[in-house]
Write a structure and sequence with these properties.
single chain, two-stranded antiparallel ribbon, 2 strands, 12 helices, globular, 299 residues, mainly alpha
């Protein structure tokens, strides 16, 4: 029983990590139709900016973290204004996000005091504090609790924003029918900057919260982003609830495989691929239009 509880806890924390990264990508695609490949790279850049300010410049932790998030918000606004707005299709903007990803990665590797070590320790004010889980013989760190709580708050906040606010209604209108939304007076050029700024800010927040749990390391965070991208397909890249469910399912599969089937080599790493294959099979069996309508209704 203790081993089972430990596995569930590990899966929940890891699933929260995937969910946090995935929600920002869903937000962009849900509103603009763009697959934001730069999400992980922008988050890593913000993480190293915050790390440098806190660990090297000795800024207060929250000030340094806020500076990292603010940098990505400005970057999101600039990307939308000077790049995305000038593109003629969502596909071309997706390609542009790939270019932005490569630029962000280049900056991370080019700054010598960021890349002296393969991984950087980025402790938060809660690092070293734990809570023991009764019956599990396992301790959860405060950083992990903050990560899970942030996912819950962000999920509820985005759902409220999309369903209960004028901005959210405008975002949904632009996504569902851009032509009709313009006839209703919704201006794309006012909605899109908010979406990109929010998404890039979420990317930065994700990495800053992940770093105290799993270190600040470029390769692993980009790998997490790829897994987060896989779970977004569970919700058709538009549904927040299905994306979170997909993230938890993937994380649980990985955790149970690593603990109960450790002798099967490579299976934990194969689960994102197998999950995507499963989603494709379901979409072949059931009409794609019906699935998309269900995903949009739950978004």
């Amino acid at each position: 029983m203790s081993k089972l509880l430990q596995t569930i806890i590990i899966g929940t924390v890891t699933g929260s990590l995937y969910s946090l990264l995935a929600m920002g990508m869903v937000l962009v695609y849900r509103t603009t139709g763009v697959l934001n490949i730069a999400h992980g790279g922008v988050g890593v850049l913000a993480g190293f900016v915050a790390w440098g300010l806190v660990m090297l410049r000795h800024w207060p932790y929250y000030v340094g973290a806020l500076a990292g998030v603010a940098l990505t918000v400005v970057l999101g606004l600039a990307f939308e204004r000077f790049v995305a707005r000038r593109m003629t299709s969502a596909g071309s903007v997706t390609v542009a996000t790939l270019g932005l990803f490569l630029i962000a990665q280049g900056v991370v590797f080019a700054v010598p005091w960021w890349s002296n070590n393969s991984a950087q320790v980025f402790p938060s004010p809660y690092t070293g504090r734990t809570v023991r889980i009764p019956g599990a013989d396992y301790a959860v760190s405060y950083d992990q609790i903050v990560l899970v709580a942030t996912v819950v708050v962000l999920f509820v906040g985005l759902r409220f924003l999309l369903r209960r606010t004028r901005l959210g209604m405008a975002m949904r209108a632009v996504s569902d029918d851009p032509s009709a939304s313009r006839l209703m007076g919704v201006r794309d050029e006012l909605v899109a900057p908010v979406v990109w700024a929010m998404a890039f800010g979420i990317a930065a927040l994700s990495v800053i919260l992940i770093a105290p749990v799993n270190l600040l390391e470029n390769t692993s965070i980009v790998a997490y982003t790829l897994k987060a991208l896989a779970v977004t397909f569970v919700g058709g890249l538009v549904s927040l609830p299905l994306t979170v469910v997909g993230a938890l399912v993937l994380a649980m599969l990985e955790a149970f495989t690593q603990i109960y089937a450790a002798d099967i080599r490579g299976l934990p790493s194969a689960w994102p691929f197998l999950l995507m294959v499963g989603v494709l099979v379901i979409r072949l069996i059931r009409p794609t239009r019906a699935l998309d309508e269900q995903a949009l209704a739950s978004a």
